[in-house]
Specification:
single chain; alpha+beta; Alpha-Beta Plaits; 5-stranded antiparallel beta sheet; 19 helices
């Protein structure tokens, strides 16, 4: 019977197989492909029922498609069988080429495993080649092999039942099912690939949308930030190179258009005194306070905060610099510092600032009256009892370097060379000031003090210090003067002070007594001031009382 129908059946089946395979390879989704595979086993291969078990990512197999029996489909659709159970079934069956057949008289040992299966009612077979309801026929599907005919990974199993005619498939039927499983595996692999590509495209589009949204958010945050922001190249030292982009707030802060900003780096704009601060500012989260040049030539105090960003994963790195205007805060800080170190009435350095400036010039080393000690004593090891410099330097070369940079302050009055020069300390006390306060009030006294401070400041060189100790006492620090120079300076300042002063609508006059002291290393600031103060009193007492004031 098989030999008579065999020439006719293959021709019809080939047409049906060709149509089914064409549908498998043109299906729009993996689910559609799976259902076409199940339906094709029924319509093209002549089985009453077919099931497609698909390997999941975790390795187990799930019933992904069923065809031929709605009741059986409802029973097992979506159920999962363990990979171990499936592998045991594929190992124990008879091999029909790549097919696995488990006859009914051996299948009973599989009844208790977790592989989804159905049961059909049918009469007992009357001869050996007749299909029994308990027979199992599986067609494993593998990915195309990497080498020659070697098969790849298992991607699923087609399970069929009850072939038309009630007979076990012959040689051609087995070959057809095996070829069908091979083509179905290709179709499913392609469907998997298309699904993965579609998911990848969806993710890519979603990522691109997120990137565009992120870029737009950054652009708006950058452009419309209330404080200055800039993107700059990173130069060879990993610091700010040329400015690539500046937002509107930074352009307004510096008074420069965006196009002009791209011609500069921050190093071009920073105040010369703050270049070191800029270089010390780390690119990774570094902060620094410095001054940047405005277009009109003025400078504004800003706080810089850096962060490093990359254009792409392996792309160039840039510096995102946040620039905050701190001009007002700096002005308040400078004002507070000035108030702490300067007299509130005259604006001159106060007593504390005077002592600090004087102490900065002096060390604890004792110097001889005729100049420096011998070379060995002058450059003795710091801390030696009979020649130590007096600074708390660390041991090593750094200590000697710092030692060498200090120039000892000496008093010229004891030097053998009459041309020696030193740091003169002129202690000035006003004569007749108390009577002005008593007669005309404190406002008049304040006006006198302010004018005296102005005249003293105008009468000294740039770099000299004029300070107010308190009351009507002033001190002048003048470096690089000889004895005659200091006496001449005191005379000129006295001549300026005795000129009439307008106070409260009237002209008043005060005199001045000067004591000249000399600072040298080994003295403290208080000792220097006390020495000048004592000499001032000696000078004051040496003059007749009627000559101590101008009028």
């Amino acid at each position: 019977m098989e030999t008579e129908s065999e020439p006719y059946v293959p021709l019809t089946s080939l047409r049906q197989l060709h149509q089914v395979m064409a549908e498998m390879n043109t299906a729009r989704s993996l689910a559609d492909t799976l259902q076409i595979v199940a339906d094709g086993a029924v319509t093209a291969l002549g089985y009453e029922m077919a099931c497609v078990n698909l390997v999941r990512p975790d390795g187990d197999l799930v019933v992904a498609a069923f065809s031929g029996n709605p009741a059986a489909e409802a029973l097992i659709m979506g159920r999962v069988g363990a990979r171990e159970s499936w592998e045991r079934r594929l190992r124990m069956g008879e091999l029909w080429g790549d097919l696995v057949f488990i006859p009914h008289h051996e299948g009973w040992v599989l009844d208790d495993d977790d592989v989804p299966q159905w049961y059909t009612e049918a009469p007992v077979p009357r001869f050996d080649e007749e299909w029994h309801p308990g027979d199992r026929l599986f067609a494993p599907m593998y990915t195309p092999g990497v080498q020659g005919g070697a098969r790849g990974e298992l991607i699923g199993v087609i399970s069929v039942d009850r072939p038309h005619g009630g007979r076990r498939p012959g040689a051609w039927g087995r070959e057809a099912l095996q070829m069908y499983a091979f083509q179905a595996a290709i179709a499913l692999s392609n469907a998997h690939l298309r699904a993965n590509m579609q998911r990848a495209l969806v993710r890519l589009e979603r990522d691109q949308q997120a990137l565009r949204a992120s870029e737009e958010s950054f652009r708006q945050a950058f452009e419309y930030a209330p404080s200055g922001m800039a993107i700059a190249e990173m130069d060879g030292d990993h610091h700010q190179g040329r400015v690539l982009r500046a937002n509107d707030a930074l352009c307004r802060l510096l008074g420069r258009p965006a196009a002009a900003m791209r011609r500069y780096s921050f190093a071009d704009l920073v105040h010369p005194e703050d270049v070191t601060t800029l270089r010390r500012t780390s690119p990774e989260g570094g902060r620094g306070e410095l001054r940047l040049a405005r277009r009109d030539g003025s400078y504004v105090w800003v706080s810089l905060r850096n962060s490093v960003v990359a254009d792409t994963t392996d792309g160039p790195r840039f510096l995102l610099t946040h620039v905050e205007d701190i001009e007002e805060r700096k002005r308040r800080e400078l004002q507070l510092a000035h108030r702490a170190s300067h007299d509130s009435l005259t604006g001159l350095p106060n007593s504390a600032e005077l002592r600090a400036r004087l102490a900065a010039r002096l060390c604890r080393r004792q110097t001889q009256a005729d100049g420096l000690d011998s070379l060995d004593a002058a450059y003795g090891h710091p801390g030696d009892a009979d020649g130590g410099h007096g600074f708390d330097f660390a041991s090593g070369a750094e200590a000697y370097d710092a030692f060498d940079h200090h120039v000892h302050t000496i008093a010229p009055e004891g030097a053998h060379d009459d041309g020696a020069k030193g740091l003169a300390v002129l202690f000035c006390d006003l004569d007749g000031f108390k009577s002005i306060n008593d007669r005309f009030g404190h406002n008049a006294g304040d006006a006198v003090l302010i004018e005296v401070a102005r005249r003293l400041s105008n009468g000294v060189r740039d770099g000299d210090t004029v300070a107010r100790l308190g009351g009507d006492e002033f001190v002048i620090l003048a470096d690089g003067l000889g004895r005659a120079d200091a006496q001449d300076l005191a005379g000129r300042l006295r001549g300026e002070i005795i000129q009439p002063i307008r106070a409260e609508g009237r002209a008043v006059r005060v005199g001045a007594s000067f004591g000249i002291g000399w600072a040298h290393c080994g003295m403290t600031a208080d000792e220097v001031l006390k020495s000048a103060d004592e000499r001032m009193y000696v000078e004051k007492r040496s003059r007749p009382k009627q000559h101590r004031r101008a009028g």
